[in-house]
Amino acid sequence: xxxxxxxxxxxxxxxxxxxxxxxxxxQDARQAVVRTLGEAAVKSGATTVLISGDVYEKQQMSQQTxxxxxxxxRAFKSVQWHLMPGNHDHFRENGLWDRIVRxxxxxxxxxxxxxxxxxxxxxxxxxxxxxxxxxxFTSSADDLTAYMDKEATPEGAIRIGMAHGxxxxxxxxxxxxxxVAPSRADSAGLSYLAMGDWHRQxxxxxxxxxxxTPEADQFKLPPNPVSSRCNGGSALLVEVNGSNALPVVSPxxxxxxxxxxxEKVLTEDAQVDLLESELRALDSDLSKIVVDLRVTxxxxxxxxxxxxxxxxxxxxxxxxxxxxxxxxxxxxPTDQDLDEIDHAGxxxxxxxxxxxxxxxxxxxxQAPLAALALKRLYIEHLRQGTxx
Length: 388
Fold this sequence. Notes:
With 388 residues, the protein is of the alpha/beta class. It has nine helices and 18 strands. Helix 1 runs parallel beside helix 2 (63-74) and helix 5 (271-280) packs parallel to helix 6 (301-318). The longest helix is centred in the N-terminal third of the chain and has 25 residues, at 20-44.
């Protein structure tokens, strides 16, 4: 049996730290990834898609948001979709999942809100059962997969578990303290345990994997990163050829956008050019790239202008989204920069006096304060120039 394992679509997520146009595009990508998963299933010959929790971002979703995802699933008539509540969209009476069920779900979509083995297919005479562990609360103190150890299925059946939480002993990368025993697949006789909650794709053991989110949504790098690319943007194609056979697991790309976190220290103006080259090298199509740029260091007036023009305006316009933290980037005006401040008038006089005070020996106390005031004056001058 071939199936697609995914989780943490978090449809309806709001990206408030981006401007509305960018936030809207990122929200749309989370809905569109449903079709991407369906297309991946058809292309690979998979008959089923398992989504192990957090299909939606929260309980309070509009009816249109709920229905659009289900309609996208309906469009793939040859694919069976199996959905399970996670911590963001946990099951509660008269909640999100009850609303979905009342929509008269299409025949190829099944919602699993109760624990227990459910037959979902038959592979050459071997029945295939899914054993879901849906969340009824945001957080549970119990291992909700424990029931799987004693859950009966016919001899020779292929048993596939679905869970949402943190594998005990592997740390916690998710948001809820829903711990699952790392040996659950073995103790419960599972051919595969499809985990959700961690947005990073990860192999726990041969029979237990986190699929990761199919569309990146946060600027979080994996441990020991080898690049600036953040977690997310793929799913897993899983093939199980018998109840005792080890599953064959293959990552498949699904993300419309790549998220990157770039941190740089600028100590001279020429490094702005290098930063621009690095950002442009992220992809041949920068409209697919979202960047969290964190820059520290010091630049002159010319360097700051270059940064504004080449990075924030030019590259920033090409990127799908740019979040910029400039708190650590300070201005270090040169003498030439200071000479460009109002050649006449009180601003010029103030700059000359502060410059003279800043040159006084540090033990006279006024030099540090004068230097700070000079830089503030310089920053305001730069801002006024930018506005004009």
